[in-house]
Amino acid sequence: MKRAGLRPHTRLHPSFATTILLVVAACVVAGGAAACPGVASARTLARGIADPTLTQSISPADQATAVHAIRSELGATYVRFVISWAATEPTGPTVPTPYGAPIPYDPSSPYMTSVAAAITQAHADHLKVLITFQDVPKWASNPAYWGKSGYHANDALLPTAANLSYFSAFCRAVATQFRGQVYAYECWNEPNLYLSLYPQATSHDHNFAAHLYVQMLRSFSKGIHNGDPKALRVAGATAPRGSYRPYAYSTSPQRFAAVIKATKGWSLLFDAYSHHPYMPGASPRTWPEAAPANPNATVTLQNLGTLLKMFPTKPFFLTEYGYQTAPCQAFGGQHVNQVTQANYLRRAYAYAARYKQVKMLIWYLVKDFAPPGRVYQLGFFTGLQTAGGVYKPAWYVFAGDDHLSLNSSAATVKRAARVTLSGQLACTSMGGGLAAKPLVVQSRRAGRPWTTIKTIISQAAGPLTSSGHYTLQLRPKASAYYRVAWLGVVTSRTRYVAVK
φ and ψ at 204, to 5 degrees? Predict the structure, then answer.
């Protein structure tokens, strides 16, 4: 996902603005997955985190702490970082150089120093690192597409032999620097949207961006292989939605993939394919298992098989996914509450695991991004934490090993007699009990639905410990089942109290 506010583009015609804002959401060989996976799956899907702020705009100490927490607290296996070609090599060749000569690459620049620190920390924490490239430098972009507002980093590469060679040299330099530390590299981020490559279509080439991408993919593939032959090369990283007709601002992920598939020798250009199966903004169907409103132009988790069957021998990486918990412009205001986000996170991982070809699902953002003054326009709220650092319920679902016990002081009581319910809320992966979390107490009589009868807060045992214990007393008037829940995260076992 590329936040539109961080890289503004003024070419968007007003009549298209609403449509585009709703569009942007933005590894072993296995057999093809079924288009409609089964209801249940025992397979556990690998989890990862993507957050562009972890390599920039953060202090070294905060960076180390945040990256370490991805493994130590969240228990993730993968972490995805972004490297901007434009930021890494902003000036390009300063003197004429013969064809094929690499552009000066400075691994000691402030930008790359911050990137290297994040990668080093992740590698030390035994995280598998994925790197995604984006942003065409001004010197390599095509001025024909700059428009009245001038150059933008999403303007199309001018695909001369020299520029393609320079891109290959850049990829090789990065892969060489991080040889043995990076698991995989992605060739560009969401290349089927104008925010990453503009234009998507021209009057002369209805698949302009896809054809350009194939040229870039060839250079990328060669550069990564020469820099680190053991690193995986990943193609795609497509956004969930686009136009299935020629359109300057987007290309459907299916049509984009079809251009790659039609390329001679395509299977040698990449080792895995990736996609971002968000449910697009303003969709009335927000849940992970829902079919997209327009399956011809959209690929979500539900119809992921349309891409899988195009590359049946390639493993698939889902390198971005998430749900907003506050309105943001990029998703047309679409959002859910924090409890629903936690529920959807759990369901998304379970659903994606049914596709044997899918090897990982990476959640987008550790922490919400909420810039002062323009929160709606530039903010992004799929994080597992709020912008202030408060853990959302989804944090604990992602971390896993959540437990909520329930004990009853008696199995049988007289009518209106006192019965005590007690237990503890804990998260093993977080190191113990969880205090100050809201718990709901629910009861159900035979043949009736569950009803919330009380809300309580898990308690702390002392100033330095968070025990997560709770206790409450009830005077039941009839036999009933009881349970306690931290909504969206975990529910206790059921206890039956008989009233005589």
Answer: -95, -20
Contact 408/482 with Cβ under 8 angstroms?
yes
Give the dihedral sign, CA 476/480/486/491: positive
Q: What type of residue is 367?
A: K
Q: Looking at this protein, which amino acid is placed at residue 357?
A: Q
Q: Are 450 and 482 in contact (CB under 8 A)?
A: no
- Amino acid of residue 458: S
The pLDDT tens digits along the chain (500 residues) read 665 433 333 343 333 333 333 333 333 333 333 334 444 455 789 999 999 999 988 899 999 999 999 999 999 999 999 999 999 999 887 655 554 555 788 999 999 999 999 999 999 999 999 999 999 999 999 999 998 999 999 999 999 999 999 999 999 999 999 999 999 999 999 999 999 999 999 999 999 999 999 999 999 999 999 999 999 999 999 999 999 999 999 999 999 999 999 999 999 999 999 999 999 987 888 999 999 999 999 999 999 999 999 999 999 999 999 999 999 999 999 999 999 999 999 999 999 999 999 999 999 999 999 988 899 998 999 999 999 999 999 999 999 999 999 999 999 999 989 999 999 999 998 888 999 999 999 999 999 999 999 999 998 765 555 789 999 999 999 999 999 999 999 999 999 999 99
Pairing of strands 438-444, 480-486: antiparallel
Asked if omega into 199 is within 30° of 0 (cis), the reply is: yes
Q: Residue count of the chain, please give it.
A: 500
Domains annotated for the chain, with CATH where assigned, are: 4-399 (3.20.20.80), 402-499 (2.60.40.10)
Rounded (to 5) percent helix, strand, coil in the chain: 30, 25, 50
